[in-house]
Design brief:
With 327 residues, the protein is of the alpha+beta class. The protein has twelve helices and twelve strands. It binds iron/sulfur cluster.
C-alpha cells in the first residue's frame, strides 16, 4: 500500500476545504480499502467523513424522505418509513452484500462503489478504467459478468450496486456539496455510461461530497418487486437484477417503473419504454413489450450473450410478481 495522510474533519465545509487532487473521502471503506490493498486506488490523502453530521433519515416537506449520506445500508433497509413507503428500496438493499457489509457500508458510498470487473482489480493487466488508454481485455477475455447495454469500445463494465437500481426506479435525487456550492443531481444523471472516458463512473466534480439522497413522495410499495439473479444465492453480485413497481387501478396500469442492474455501466431505465404500458392491463403481453423496448439494442459478448434472454424473462417475472403484490 502507498503512503497517504489522514484527516478527520468535523463538518462538511472543512472536509471540502481539505480536499486536494489525489484526496479521497472515506466512510465505511468497504470498497475503497480493498482497492487500496490491491494497488488500484492510490490516494495521497484520506479524508475520514465518519464524524460529519450526515446520518439522519428525515421526512421532507414534500412528503418524501431525505437520507443522510452516512446512513448505513442496514439502518436504511430496516427503517420503518423505508419498509412501509419505499419497500422496493429495502428489498434491493437486503439483496446485496452481507449483514456485516451492510452494517459498515453507507448510502453515499454505495453510489460510489466501483465495478467488480476482474481486470479492473488486477493491477498487472491493462484496463481503461484504471489506466486510461491501456486497453480493455474484458472485450475478448472473460466477460460473463459484463454489460449488454450502453457499453463502449473502451469499457464493458457494469455498476455493481443493488441499492442504486431501486433508487433509479424511485426517481431519487443526489444532493452534493463542493467548492462551487451545493447542487442536486437527478439519479438518472448521476452515473454515466463509459463512452470514451470509462475512468469516470459518475458526474461528480473533483472534491464534491455526497451529503444526502432524497426520495420523492411515492405510492409504489403495494406492487413492487426486486428480483436478483446471480451465480449463488447470497453474497454475490447480480448477473441481472430488476427493480419493478406498479400503480394499478382495477388491473390497469397507471404507473410503472423498471430499472435493471448488472447489465450496464449504470442502472438502466427507459421512461419511454415505461410509457408504453400506461392504461394497459397488467399482463404478460404488456410486460413483454416493455422488456423488448427496454432491451432494444442489447448486445452481449462471448460469455454473456445469455444475459439478453435472461433479462427479458427477469423483467416479465419481476413485473408479474409486483402485479400480484408478491413479497
Ligand atoms: Fe477495465 Fe472496463 Fe475493460 Fe473491465 S470492462 S477491463 S473495467 S476497461
Amino acid at each position: 500500500m502507498n503512503p497517504f495522510s489522514y484527516a478527520r474533519p468535523a463538518d462538511v465545509s472543512e472536509a471540502i476545504r481539505l480536499f486536494q487532487p489525489g484526496s479521497r473521502y472515506i466512510a465505511g471503506g468497504t470498497n475503497l480499502l480493498d482497492l487500496m490493498k490491491e494497488n488500484v486506488a492510490r490516494p495521497t490523502q484520506l479524508i475520514d467523513i465518519t464524524r460529519l453530521p450526515l446520518n439522519d433519515i428525515a421526512d421532507t416537506a414534500a412528503g418524501g424522505l431525505r437520507i443522510g449520506a452516512l446512513v448505513s445500508n442496514a439502518d436504511l433497509a430496516w427503517d420503518a418509513r423505508v419498509e412501509q413507503r419505499y419497500s422496493l428500496l429495502a428489498k434491493a438493499i437486503l439483496a446485496g452484500a452481507s449483514p456485516q457489509l451492510r452494517n459498515m457500508a453507507t448510502t453515499g458510498g454505495n453510489l460510489l462503489q466501483r465495478t467488480r470487473c476482474y481486470y479492473f482489480y488486477d493491477a498487472d493487466t491493462p484496463c481503461n478504467k484504471r489506466e486510461p488508454g491501456s486497453g480493455c481485455p474484458a472485450r475478448e477475455g472473460l466477460n460473463r459478468i459484463h454489460a449488454i447495454l450502453g457499453h463502449s469500445e473502451q469499457c464493458i463494465a457494469v455498476h455493481p450496486s443493488d441499492m442504486c437500481v431501486a433508487l433509479a426506479a424511485l426517481d431519487a435525487s443526489v444532493l452534493v456539496e463542493g467548492h462551487a456550492g451545493e447542487r442536486r443531481i437527478a439519479f438518472a444523471d448521476f452515473h454515466r455510461l463509459p463512452g470514451d472516458a470509462p475512468e469516470r463512473d459518475n458526474t461528480l466534480a473533483d472534491g464534491e461530497l455526497i451529503t444526502a439522497v432524497e426520495l420523492p413522495a411515492e405510492n409504489l410499495s403495494t406492487h413492487c418487486s426486486y428480483l436478483k439473479i446471480r451465480d449463488r444465492q447470497s453474497y454475490a453480485f447480480a448477473l441481472v437484477s430488476v427493480a419493478a413497481a406498479l400503480q394499478l387501478d382495477g388491473g390497469v396500469i397507471r404507473q410503472v417503473r423498471v430499472a435493471l442492474g448488472g447489465v450496464a455501466h449504470k442502472p438502466w431505465r427507459s421512461p419511454d419504454a415505461e410509457a408504453l404500458l400506461i392504461g394497459r392491463p397488467a399482463d404478460a403481453d404488456a410486460f413483454g413489450e416493455l422488456a423488448d423496448a427496454l432491451l432494444a439494442g442489447a448486445q452481449g459478448f462471448a460469455d454473456n450473450q445469455f444475459k439478453v434472454a435472461l433479462a427479458r424473462r427477469a423483467i416479465i417475472r419481476a413485473l408479474s410478481d409486483a402485479a400480484e403484490g408478491a413479497a
